[in-house]
Amino acid sequence: MSTAHPNAFRPDMRLHSPAQYQRVLRESRCLHSASVRLHVHQPNPSAAALRARLGITVSKRVSKLAVVRNRFKRIVRNSFRQYGQQLPPGDYVIVAKAGKTPGEGLAEELMALWQRATLLNPTGEAGTMSGYNAAQPARDTPIPVGIRRPSSPDR
Asked: What is the tens place of the pLDDT at every residue in 107-152?
């Protein structure tokens, strides 16, 4: 009988079939960082899942070297082990962005994404993030026709 480490990545914590991945990618909300995209699919409260599950997608566009792609997946799984208990139940799919190799800041990016994912409003009503107050627009009236908007200095 083998005893698994308490923080081991268990098979019930991951997505398995292509249909599961497609459902998450089709019906999810998306959070971005510099090198990854996080798709979050939280089921409705009546059919709530028991825990958070993870799926990882790293294409050859990220790197043709399997060593680099596998390193990326190891970093993501380790981050999910640490923060997955704090996430609301649902399915999470990490998609690596093309041309972005896993660097030193990947763990910090993932930590920020996990924190943002905990703020997502599961019902999707009255905004997408609970506890987040968006900045109000500086101008409520539209600019009249014929008046030019000031151009930005970086143009």
From this structure: 999 999 999 988 876 655 555 555 555 555 555 556 666 666 666 5
Domains, the chain, ordered by start: 11-118 (3.30.230.10)
Strand order in the sheet with 52-57: 29-32, 36-41, 90-96, 52-57
Q: Show the tokens assigned to 143.
A: 């600019």
Q: What is the DSSP letter of 49?
A: -
Give 154's DSSP letter: T
CB 80 within 8 A of CB 74: no
In this structure, which amino acid lies at residue 32? H
Q: What is the Rg, in whole angstroms, of the alpha carbon atoms belonging to the chain? A: 19
Nearest CA to 91 among 124, 44, 37, 51?
A: 51
| Residue 107 near residue 75 (C-beta atoms within 8 A) | yes
- pLDDT tens digits, residue range 54-112? 899 999 988 899 999 999 999 999 999 998 888 888 889 999 988 777 777 899 999 99
